[in-house]
Every structure is written in structure tokens, then in C-alpha cells.
Amino acid sequence: MAADEGSGSGSAPPSLQDLTIDNITPNTIKINSQCKNQRLKYVMERLVTHIHDFARETRISTEEWMAGLNFLVQAGQISSDVRHEFILLSDVLGLSLLVDDINHPKPANTTEGSVLGPFHTHDAPTLENGANMSSDPQGEPMVCICNVKDTNGKPIEGIKIDIWETDSTGHYDVQHSDRNEPTERCVMLSDANGDFWFKCILPVSYPIPHDGPIGKLLEKLGRHPWRPAHLHFMFEKEGYDHLITALYMRGDPYEASDAVFGVKKSLIVEPQRIDAATAKKYGVPENSWVLKHDFVLTTDQETADLRDKLATEALAKLGLNLKLVDHLPVPDLD
Ligand SMILES: [Fe+2]
């Protein structure tokens, strides 16, 4: 039996001999097609197709290929419990943004998502409304007054909100080697009116960690590593689409050149100088900033319906004969 010259279809395993530039792809797909999991089989078919085409289209040299593999090894070696270099890689390649937009499409007038980034942790303290999540005396004080509601305008009570930001030097707590406890991060719950409010510091712009392989890659590409000043939010409650987002401070020099492509115009906000009455009400100094923002969340069902609709349209446009199983495309063999 000869190596398969065709599309990789057929039930008999191929003979994996005398494979060439032209027939390695269908034969790799064919040997993988023994996989019983239809989704995994399809994902691997597309991965092999694109990665082989990439090699053929670039006529990649052995040295370049080895440099690529070594780059991945370095990304693994510099990663740790508190440093995830592969998230950074995904971020700077625009893949994180793409995956989020595919999985969490938002109807108009709801809060858009943004990149998670590598600095979320699971040890943030749960704080009462009105608490201060920052212990940095050098930061400019700010109070955030927020509300969260559904697409019908109904307040969402008791939603868990993870919030995190850098200190005034532009570093997350996990970037300090002497970190003893979480700082500049907290978990809050919205009240019966969907309100939550907290004290923090005015976010500052910061470079993503660029002392590792991703930093070197950016340098070679002539790109800067900076992110515009922002405050991260993550909303979780059963029945609602898991929302990972951030608010970006208007006027930041990197507003339109975020190294990880996270900025959306609907997420740009403008903190104001606080008035005396509001400062007194929230117990913050009179030179504080105040940021007011209302979040609008979709339900799981609303997001799933929109995701399926957009997936069906996108696959039809690509001319692929696919169906959705558990919201994910697999070949339609019926
Ligand atoms: Fe960040």
C-alpha cells in the first residue's frame, strides 16, 4: 500500500513510507484520523494543515525551525507559578484577543471583554464594599463606583468580581520577589442594587515582562512592550457569561498601541477629580480621582446563542462543511 496522495480520506491506515513535501500532510492527517474524538480529530487536521503550509510557504530553514523550538523551550523555562510566558506569547501574537472574541461575543450595549493577561491570581482577599485594595502610598488615590446589571437593566446581586492592578511603579505584586501577600488585588460582591465600590490607585502604564524570550521577540520585531494604564475585572456568577475585561484610562500614550491588543473604545474611561461631597461620602482624600462605570453582562444563554450564530456564519463564509456539536465545529458527515 502506497502513501496516500489524496485528501486523507478513507478508512485503512496509510503506509507511512516515502513521504514527500507534497504528500506528508494528507498522510499525517490520515494517521491522526484514527482518533475517536471528532473534535480533537478536526482540530488536529486543521493544525497539521496550517503548520505544514507554513513550512512550505516560508521554505523554513533548519536553523529557523530549531530557533523556533528553542524559543518555546526558553518560554517554558522562564515560566513559573507566577509567570506564564505562554500567555504573554499568545497575547503579543493577538491570539488571546481572537480566542476571547470568538468565545465571548458581545451584543451591542453590553460590556466587551479584554485580555486576561498573565497576572491574575487566586489568592486575592475578599473585601467589603468601600475597602481599599491598594497598599501603595505612592499611588494617586482613586475611588471606583461601579454597577453591574443584565441586558434587561436588572441589577445583578452577589456577582463575584475579581479586581487587580499594578502598584504605582507599574508592577503587579507577583513581580516583586519579596511578595508575602496579595496587594493591589481583591474580590468583591455586588450588593442588592448591583453596586460595588472600592478604593484603589490611579492605574499607570507598564511594560509587559520583557526580560525573557517574548521581550526579545518584541525587540526584534521593532515593537514596544508597553500596555496603557488599566484596571482588570473578572465577573463570575452562575447563569452569566464569564466576563474578563479591563478599563483603560483615556489619554494614555499607549492607548492606541497596546502591546497585547486589549484596548476597545467602549472600555476607555476618564477618571475625574473628585468633588468634596463625594470625597467625604466615600472617605477618600480631596485630591482623589473618581471613576464611575456601569457594566452590562450577558447571560450564558445569550452568549451561547450569539456564538453559535456567528460560528455558523463564519464557517459558511469559509465554505467548510461543518456542524456544531456542543457549540464547537466538527465535520458534518451526515
Ligand atoms: Fe494588566
TrEMBL record:
CDD domains: 1_2-HQD. GO terms for molecular function: catechol 1,2-dioxygenase activity; ferric iron binding. Belongs to the intradiol ring-cleavage dioxygenase family. It comes from Xylaria arbuscula. Keywords: Dioxygenase, Iron, Metal-binding, Oxidoreductase. This is Intradiol ring-cleavage dioxygenases domain-containing protein. It comes from the Eukaryota. Residues 117-298 form the Intradiol ring-cleavage dioxygenases domain. SUPFAM superfamilies: Aromatic compound dioxygenase (SSF49482). Pfam families: Dioxygenase_C (PF00775), Dioxygenase_N (PF04444). The lineage of its organism: Eukaryota, Fungi, Dikarya, Ascomycota, Pezizomycotina. Its cofactor is Fe(3+). Residues 37-110 form the Catechol dioxygenase N-terminal domain. GO terms for biological process: catechol-containing compound metabolic process.
